[in-house]
Amino acid sequence: MTEGCDLQSLTGRCTDPAHDHGKTAERWRLLADVGAEMGAQDAQWGEQNHPDGTGGDAALLGRSMLWLRDTMRRACQDAAKRGECTWLLVALEEVFEAAAETDPVALRTEVVQAAAVFTQWAGAIDRASRPPAAAILASVVGVRRAGHKVAPLDGTQDGWRCSCGRTFTVETGFAVCPEAGL
Q1: The dihedral sign for the CA sequence 133, 5, 167, 36
Q2: At what angle do helices 87-99 and 65-81 cross, to 10 degrees?
Q3: 28-52 per-position pLDDT tens digit
Q4: pLDDT tens digits for range 54-68
Q5: Helix/strand/coil (H, E, C) string of the chain?
Q6: Contact call for residues 162 and 177 (beta carbons, < 8 A)
Q7: Residues 133-171: pLDDT tens digits?
Q8: Which of 11, 12, 116, 163 is most buried, with most CB under 10 Å away?
Q9: CB hemisphere CA count around 143 (13 angstroms)
């Protein structure tokens, strides 16, 4: 990690694409969750080989997939212009883009894009359940004032390692190092 960038990583405001800030570890955890769900589906249903059911001529609720794709695309773009974009709108736009495809290569690309959006959405749900970055930052600054330095254990905000060698977790929004007395 670049010197001076750790505070930016704690607040999520680093714009340097060379800095990972735990995204790789978070993504592996999300993909492990997806893999586990795929295994559960295989265990319940076996290998599934359904027809795609996609293409411009395919219909859902009396509307063509092309109409649904275009409608969702406009709805998502309009919501984004108003600052009201939601994960649901983005996900539905991706689903209906896939639904309108007939070419297998393009369909696979759209399905992968939809899967990525759903996985990103799951990550956003995880991040929303973490303590606010401001509370974590304030407590980490307090630990530093006590002469200690902290770093994320695995690149996330779930656990920390202090320069004194102790590890600790974030509890109710505060990083607490017993050795630093905080």
Answers
A1: positive
A2: 150
A3: 888 888 988 999 999 999 999 999 9
A4: 987 888 999 999 999
A5: CCCCCHHHHHHCCCCCCCCCCCHHHHHHHHHHHHHHHHHHHHHHHCCCCCCCCCCCCCEECCEEHHHHHHHHHHHHHHHHHCCCCCHHHHHHHHHHHHHCCCCHHHHHHHHHHHHHHHHHHHHHHHHHCCCCHHHHHHHHHHHHHCCCCEEECCCCCCEEEECCCCEEEEECCEECCHHHCC
A6: yes
A7: 545 554 555 555 556 666 666 655 566 666 777 666 654
A8: 163
A9: 26
Hey, what are 77's tokens? 């773009």
**Contact indicator for 169, 159 with CB cutoff of 8 Å:** yes
Structure tokens at 63: 């509307």
- Taking CA 27 as the corner, what is the angle to CA 26 and CA 33, rounded to the nearest 5 degrees? 95
**Residue 116 and residue 84: Cα distance in Å, rounded?**
21
